[in-house]
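Sample 1 of the test manifest.
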Amino acid sequence: MNFWIIQGLNGLAFGSLLFILASGFSLIFGLMRIVNLSHGAYFMLGAYVGLSAIEAGANFWVAILLGGAAICILGTLIERFILRRLNGQPLAQVLVTLGIAFIIADACVWIWTGDPRRVPMPSELTGAFRVAHLAFPIYRLFVIGVAFALAAALWFLLERSRLGAMIRAGVDDLTMARAMGIRTSLLFSVVFCLGSALAGAGGVLAGPILSVYPGLDTDMLPLALVVVILGGVGSLLGAFVGSLIIGFIYSYGQALFPDLAYVILFLPMVLVLTLRPTGLFGRQAI
Amino acid sequence: MTTPVLEVIGLSRFFGGLPAVRDISICVAAGERRLLLGPNGAGKTTFFNLIAGDFPPSQGEIRIFGQNVTGKSADQRTQLGMARTYQIITLFPKNTLLHNVVVSLVGLRRLRFDPWSDLRRQTVLWDEARATLALVGLDHLAERTVMETSYGERRRLEIAMALAQKPKLLLLDEPLAGLSADERQDVQRLLQSIPRDVTIVMIEHDMDVALAFADVITVMQHGQVVVEGSRADVVADPKTREVYLGH
Amino acid sequence: MRAPAFNWVMWLVGLAVLLVLPWLVTSEYYVNIASQIVIAAILALSLNLLIGFGGMISLGHAAYLGVAAYLTIYLTAHAGFGQLSGAFIAISSTTVLAMLFGYLSLRASGLGFLMITLALGQILWGVAYRWASLTGGDNGLGGMERPHPFGLDLNQPTIFYYFVLFFLGVALLCIARFIQSALGQSLQGTRDQPRRMRTLGYNVWLIQWLSFVFAGFWGAVAGLLYAYYHQFVSPQALHLTTSAEALLMVIAGGTGTLFGPVVGAALVVILKNVISAYITRWLILLGAIFVAIVLFMPEGLLPGLAAWMRLLRERFHGGKKPTSVSAVTKDRVL
């Protein structure tokens, strides 16, 4: 029984990290129809930036902010000066993000070398939470809390704010939104910045759990894709539920079928594709 | 009583909550020239697309040549002998006119699955394509790319591609749209020259041409059939004037 | 439709260079690089069937290279099969995999297709990486001996080069014929106007699926040769980065031509193996070149270069006003 609970919480924790990554990816894809193949690299770079900040003496919370801010700036620059030039050519945009991913990934090896690095946990959150016979790392509970808070914040943003209304309009019908006077180019920059910041901050948050290493980007990116395919295009709820499902499968899978753990992560995606191409909560087929 | 070439029974199509086509039933006999009339938004193009197989209906049945094709895809219906033209021209812009027609010809032949034989060497096909272009008066432009032709010429190419398939049911979606007076005459003459073993269903706004051309007219509004009958019937019917009031 | 004479000259020159390469080039090291380019070229050519001629961007094409390589090495070096039977089973099994992956990938189109191919490729990487008892895990599978077809000693770099060059020739022939065939032209039609093709009676899904399988088959051939060359395979062969490199080769070389992918393969292999000795951060260079090509020369290197050469030729021969580059690149296949 303990096993199931602990693994469940681990799954929840991993799913939470995945949600922070996938939510940004989903926003960008849903609104701008850009499959941002650099998203994994943003996550990794953010983690490295956070690591350096901590090693330079900053506290963990500042490191998260710095990680998020750095990637936000980088993302905004890329969107403004490269992606916007390829407006109307979604496949070219995908290719460019691929090239950029290569550049970022190799630059990380250059700057931070190829050794895996663990990001130190903030001292306030070390240790375990004990209840009954169970002990579970406080930091992981914290991460779960962050994901739920983020989900609530994003929901609030999308459903209750003016910006959110514009985003939803753009996701539904971009031409119509433009026709109604929404400044879509500004909206794109804002969303891309937000998505990138989430990836960067998420990387720092994930640091104490996943570590940072070359290859983190290509480990995480496919999972973000799976979450979007599983959850459905343009659906925040889909990204949330999808992330948690993948998190659980990852956790239980690792424990029960270590050889095939990575493979079964993709099974829900395969099922969804065969039976329900719009994903669990999406409205258009991918 | 011979089987109608096209039979539509209780056809409906909803987009979300919106009924674009509502419970339409029509019967088109062999050799008939049927005209679909109606103001914008009447559902004519949706109806057309349902018959052509672009998407499935929400309710109802479609029968072509007596066969139930409701579940069949567009390419399967074409294999049965149907052809259609589009309102928006969807040709292959970087290819020559001849090439476009050849693509049309290959579509119905088993050759289309051949991964080895050079298509350029199928001289029989290229000759037939040239003859088809001659039918619509475009053979002098055979080697031009579609990009280099005028709108009127492209419309005629559309029709050529449809005719190349020797269809028994031809669906024409506004064949005269956007043409100059001379071009209209050319296309009109072309349409009138099509033999009676081809059944034609047409959407068209140009009243003069359409009314002269049609045997039976179906007037639609709000996704439903409002008036149906011969030219005289339709013109006389007060409901027709109601439909067009304000236009 | 007739190819201009200039192209035939380019063909012959290219062919001649390829044939005498081992004599032009000084050391065995470079002959081996040439072999690697040839193998990469076959992979890139197969991928371009999907991308350039089918309009389907795949980021999981390494799957066919990797699976064929793993099967070849496993069957021949570890399961006691002979070279020929091992090769046959490897290629046919990989082709069957392409049938399955084609079905799953074609549940979507465009960006969705891309994402599915990526995910499917990663599944295979995951299997290779984790299922160590079967695949050797991170250590990979080795112990592969090169075959001796008709008594040829493939351990000699020059002989191996001609061996793989032969396969490149066959691949080029088959793909060139495919592009000009009715099925190949239908594929290009579905790329340009899928709705129109359906109305004309074509089963678009079937055409795309068949092309996917055909591309997977040639990817498997590249994988077989890869296994022979390296005599070893690791999960890296199935990784997203390998698929991405193949994609880079195709885009860089030019998707609209037959030989573009060959040029792209040369670019990437040379960067990876030769330039990397001088510039450690060659991946940044590769990424930057790629971004530059997508931004400024989207048709790829080969069409861009060919257009400039044609422009120069016109200026040299005609003395007439040179036409623009874009006018000259219309309707090109080679």
